[in-house]
Amino acid sequence: MTEVSARKYLISNAKTNVIRVGVSALANLVLTPFIIRSIGLDKYSYVALTSFFISFSSLFDLGLSKSLVYLLNERSVDFYRKNQYLTGQGIMVLIICSLIMGGGVVALVAGFPVLGQSLPETDSYYTIVVMASFLVLILTVFDQYLCSILESFFLLHHVNHGLTLKIMMLNILYVINLFTWNSLSFYVFSSVIAIAVATAYYMYMIHRFVRWEISIPSWEVVKTLVKQGFHFFRFSVLNSIYSVLPRLTVIYMGPNLASIGIVDVVEKLSMSVINLCASLFRPLFSLSCHSPHKVAKKLFTVMLLNGGVGLLFVGVMVVFNDTITDYFFQKASVDLVFVGQILMVNAVASCFLLMSQPLSFYLQGEGKTNRLSMVFLANIVLFVLLYLSMAEVFRLNILMSLALCNVFISAFFWGTLFYLSKKTSIIRLRG
Asked: Cα angle vertex 208, ends 204, 210, to 5°?
C-alpha cells in the first residue's frame, strides 16, 4: 500500500469504528442498568457468563487468523497460493468448530464443571448457559476466520460494519425481551442469534468483494499455515489466558454470582474505551505486515494519544464515580462505595493498556511473536503471584485484589513492550 492509500485505509477504519464503539457504548450505558434492575444482578451474571466464552476464541483459533493475514500480505505470494491458503485455513477452522461442538456435548453428558462453582450443575439454567456458551464460542471462532479474510484484503471496514450489526441486533433483542417476556433464556440466547447474523453478513461481503477460487491445499501449504500459525498461537494462547484471568478467578473462586455481574459491568465500561482505541489502530497489524518502516515512525505519537485518552477516562471515573455506580447498581445489594473504588482502580489499569496497544499490533505485524509470548507469560506468572499475595497476605476482597493486579500487570505490560520496542529500534523517538 502507498502512504496515501494507507492513510485512507486508517481513516475509513476509524470512521466505521467510531460508529461501532459508539453504538456499543450507548447500548451498554442505556440497557445494562435496566436489565440488572429487571432480572436482578445474580441473573444478569448468567448473561455475562455466556458472553465470557468469547474470550476463549483466540485460544481455539490456534493463531490461524493472524497467520492468514500475515501470509496473504507477503509480497511473493501469488493468486494460486492465496486460494490454497484461504481454502486450507477454512478446512482447519471447520474441523476446530466440530471438535468444540463435540467437546460441549461431552461436557454436558459427563457433567464436567465448565462454569466452576459460580454456576453448579444443579442450577436450573446450567444446561441453557452451557449450550449457548459453546454456540457463541463456535460462531466466534468461525467469525475470526471470516474477519481475517476481510482484513487480509484491506476490507476491515466491513468487519466493523459486521460488529456494529451484531451489537445492534443483540440490543434490539434485549429491548424486545425487556418489554415482553423478560425471559432469562432469551437474554442468554440473544448472543447466539446476534453473532449468527454477523456471520451471514461477513460471508456475503467475502462473496461480493473477495476474488477467491476454492483450491485444494497442498501439504506444503498446510505445513506453512500450521507453522506460521504456531508462532501466533503461542502469543494467542498466552494473550487469551492473560485476558481472561480476572474473570476466570471470579468464576471459579468468587463468593457469589453477583461478583461476576460486577466484573462484567466494570469491564464493559473500561473496554468501551480500550476497544475504541484498539479498533482504531487495528490496521497497524496488516499495515505493519506490508510496510513496517512507515508504521514505525508513527508509533510513539499513537502511543501518546492513547495515553491521553486513558488519562481522560481516569478523570471521568474520578469526577462521576458516585453517579456511575448509582446508575448501574442502584437497586442491587452491593456496597456502592466499594464498587466505585474498583471502577477507579481499573480505570488506571486501562490507561497503561491503552499505551501498550500500538506496540502490540506492530510487534505482531513484524512477526516478533516470540517477544510478545515471553511478555504475556511473564504477565501471567506475575498475576498469579500478585493475586495470591494480596488475597492471602493482605486479606483483600477478591474483586479489589483483581483490580490492583490489573494495575500492576498493565503497567508491567506497557513497560516491557516499550523497552523491547526501544531496544530493537522500532520506535523512533523525536524531540
From this structure: 105
